[in-house]
Design goal:
The structure is a homotrimer. Chain A is mostly helical. Chain A has one domain: Ammonium transporter fold. Chain A contains 15 helices and no strands. In chain A, helix 2 runs antiparallel to helix 9. The C terminus of chain A is likely disordered. Chains A and B meet through helix 13 and helix 14 of A and helix 6 and helix 7 of B.
């Protein structure tokens, strides 16, 4: 087995780690989901950015000598791939954008190591996609200052300008679309078919994780519609992707699954939808998307209490818990 | 003694813990203060919300198996009662509001456990009302997104729109009103008589705590008027409630009282008034009240330095310092 | 040697610690740089505020019994001097301003001790100018609320109102000016000559530190111009001062210098320019300057990973790492 093929393997594992998996085939399917979305929209910069992101982040992790086991499990790749996918989603293509993606992906590896040396080492809280959120917020905010970068995203606004929805019930077909988009949006993909491909990828790696993802998507749908969230956001899956991650993380990945934990994860998932509603308006003032921050904050808070958080023996999680020193 | 009466006892202790006390009669007087304010304004949702909040928060703490001694001291109830009192103060009554209060109070218990497992365990800094502030900020911000929730509060604005006061001197009667409202506003009550009832409740549980509360209210009055804060805010007691908590916490609750500590607490109280001024304008951009955040931030910073913070032997504090694991 | 002369010595060391040095002559030169800028602008309040700040902060550190070695190295003075220099830069002179400076400088010492007892003690991350940033943000924000304080600074605005630059190349003379202003702005001085005096002061204390400061200024210039940052900000040195501190801190002060570390520090310096761009727009919403926050955040993240951060044997750093307990 050559070093080059090993590197590809690690990158694909990193791709699958966005959903807590460590599976090469799952990683390939996730790339297929991104490519499908790029094919339908005609925008390939996001898929290329994701590829560049995971390669740079993994490469930097190897040269700065981080913990080998964590690096090889792809745990230093998933924040980089998200940075690489997110930047071209919100910033127009230019020479400076690609410089931005390279430095951003490299920084995501350092930030991941920083979270690992503090949050994980002292409190056993996994950094998860926190480093992606921090890095991407800073880079998207910075784009407002740089003439070499043109923002695609909406303009900043005060919270009272936010569109409130009505308590309404979408049609059956719409509900199915929302169900899958809730999963696809973790990779910033507004395509139901991409979401379905990702869900298949998750099931290939872990059946309980797939069930948790489905439950998270359903809970998010019910709560966001019942509370009267903006239908435009709900139908794009924007109220579901953080909830999907919370349901998986709290329900089966970082805690040992049980009925007790299932109820605990259910409450965490509802709270994630509330936090999504909160962050969408507070980040809007800065003209920034909330990314997976609602998941990250809720998961940190629900995993921190030690008594509740008996560490899960699952291999992936142990890796996630491994610190860089 | 039946289990039910025990539960009621724990809830009343939780009610008194908002002011660091662990006293059933004090808790009853605090509820009397809330009921009096509801009677005069005709708005009962806040008192009902508070009741619901402390019941749910305490119940969740019992079922998730948190440290028994802390739970029984009411330390998992005071953040819940504040969440329950705050939400109906800023959001109109609806079915969704009560769902919000229940999930919010439950979440406040988890967040309290999270603060305990991190902030308190590693640095011996009490979480205090930090979990209330975080939970209430997220829920009030989320209300802007949900059509099922209608905000009562003022609209967000930029800091330059903030009304600056003149350096002026209110009349003697106004000063007396402010003195008591500074205490009542900890429970979000704009009633001087409610403030007086609460002060009596504090004195019943601890004379030094009562003296500290009075000193905090006086310092806040002098500093806020001398600096020229908005008279409308000063006269509503909005510059005093965080200062009252800081004076109590730093002066007698978390540090061992002495002349040295009294001066230290005095500086902390002045700083709290400055932080109040800062947070009122910065949170206004997000359309959020600052709640007790000025107290929480200042107290964390003044309690963190270990040499200065010889732990107080008082029973309440020891409980507050107990972590859930 | 009298106690009084010792106190003066400690204050001058504190003055030099803004650039990580512990050198009396360097401290004198830094005051000369401030005085020169005051002389050219006619505004002496900043230099007087700096003097008052370092005296109060150092005095409070002595009376609250913080770790003697750290106090004597000036490590409890440099945040106070920055608070004292920053407040009169953004707030007009009044009786309340001087009260603000005194309480603010005193608070900066407590906040420094708090950072030391948490960030440094648990994770070996130096607090550096983090306490200044936090204290100064709160005080400048608070000035919007107080009628006794008049803000000089620009009005708050949303990120889309931010002026983007064009990718352009300033003339040779402008580049020289920017090079030195990048250094002077650490002390909030927009004078190239003040920057040059400061650079001489750094070289007197440490040649590697001086080289790192120069490299940081150059990198910031190239990156900010290449990315198309607002030329008005670039030419005032506002894109460089945080980068200068990052280059020094990561390159020679907190890590052991090597080629590996030099490249690592280079990436950190580029990231600092991006974070500067981000914070300039996000803090603008609150009407606040970003101060040295871009340096502080980037340095924390790049120093946190333990494997990368073999502590530097240099005396200054060891002191910086010393906690107060």
């Amino acid at each position: 087995m050559s070093t080059k093929s090993n590197f590809v393997t690690v990158c694909l594992k990193g791709t699958s780690q966005v959903f807590f998996m460590e599976n090469i085939l799952t990683g390939l399917l996730f790339f297929a989901a991104m490519a499908f979305a790029s094919y339908t929209t005609g925008v390939w910069a996001t898929t290329i950015g994701a590829l560049l992101g995971v390669v740079v982040a993994t490469f930097v992790a190897q040269i700065v000598n981080l913990d080998k086991e964590s690096v090889n499990s792809g745990l230093y790749g998933f924040n980089g791939i998200l940075v690489g996918a997110a930047l071209p989603t919100f910033v127009d293509v230019s020479l400076q954008l690609w410089f931005y993606v390279v430095i951003g992906a490299a920084a995501s590896t350092i930030v991941t190591a920083a979270f690992s040396s503090t949050l994980t080492k002292t409190w056993n809280i996994p950094g998860s996609t926190g480093p992606f959120v921090l890095t991407a917020w800073l880079l998207v905010a910075g784009a407002y200052s740089f003439g070499g970068l043109e923002l695609i995203s909406e303009a900043p606004a005060l919270s009272t300008d936010y569109t409130q929805g009505q308590v309404m019930l979408p049609s059956g077909m719409e509900l199915v679309q929302i169900f899958f988009k809730n999963i696809g949006q973790v990779y910033l993909l507004g395509s139901a078919i991409s979401g379905a491909i990702i869900l298949i990828g998750i099931f290939i790696a872990s059946r309980p994780a797939g069930v948790a993802a489905m439950a998270g998507s359903l809970i998010a749908m019910v709560v966001s519609i019942g509370m009267g969230a903006d239908p435009a956001d709900v139908s794009q899956g924007l109220y579901g992707f953080s909830a999907v991650l919370t349901a998986m993380a709290v329900g089966v990945i970082f805690l040992k699954p049980s009925w007790r934990v299932a109820i605990y994860a259910g409450i965490a998932t509802i709270v994630t939808v509330f936090v999504q509603a909160a962050m969408d308006v507070t980040m809007l003032v800065d003209g920034l998307p909330s990314f997976t921050a609602p998941y990250v904050l809720t998961m940190y808070l629900f995993i921190a209490p030690k008594k509740l958080a008996a560490p899960h023996p699952h291999r992936v999680i142990q890796s996630e818990h491994l610190t860089s020193d």
